[in-house]
Amino acid sequence: MQGRCLCGAVSYRFRGQPYHVTHCHCASCRKASGAPFVTWFTVRSIDLQWQGELRLYHSSIGVKRGFCPQCGTTLSYRTEDAPDEIDITAATLDQPELLVPEDHTWTDQMLHWVRSSIFPLLPAHPRHRQAQSRAVGETSTPSSSA
């Protein structure tokens, strides 16, 4: 699968299956994106290739977010708690409709007007989701995913 920023200056490609497809409602994601929530998916870092200049910044302790320096598109989220994983904004995929969100995370920070319009269509977690398997036979540890 592959994706890119709005202007196309930064693109990515990954192999393997994305996992942890979530609508994140934390205040940090809202501020970073300018949206009421951000839909993320996770991939293994070794399965991801970037083309172009992805600019990184520390958005909070132990967290780096990536964006396109040309158009400002929010692209990635990475935490020191899960160094082998990286979260990518689902809407930047060339075919975002191929992913289906699994849940909502950080619902304790959800905007009340979002809650009334979409909640409880998917499982919701006040903060991080509980540890769950990524794929058959493969387990993950709780991470600070976006």
How does this structure look, described?
The chain is mainly β and 146 residues long. Helix content is 10%, strand content 38%. It contains two helices and 13 strands, in the order E-E-E-H-E-E-E-E-E-E-E-H-E-E-E. The strands form three sheets. The chain has an eight-stranded mixed sheet. A three-stranded antiparallel sheet has the order 1-2-5, with no helix packed on it. Strand 7 and strand 8 form a beta hairpin. The C terminus is likely disordered.
> What spatial order of strands do you see in the largest sheet?
6-7-8-9-4-3-10-11
Structural class: mainly beta
Helix percent reads under 10%
Number of strands: 13
Instruction: Give me the strand/helix succession.
Output: EEEHEEEEEEEHEEE
Largest sheet: 8 strands, mixed
The low-confidence runs, each spanning 5 or more residues with pLDDT under 50, are 133-145
Cα gyration radius (Å):
14 Å
Q: What average pLDDT do the residues reach?
A: 86
Contiguous helical run count: 2
Strand content: 35-45%
Termini gap: 20 Å
Shape: globular
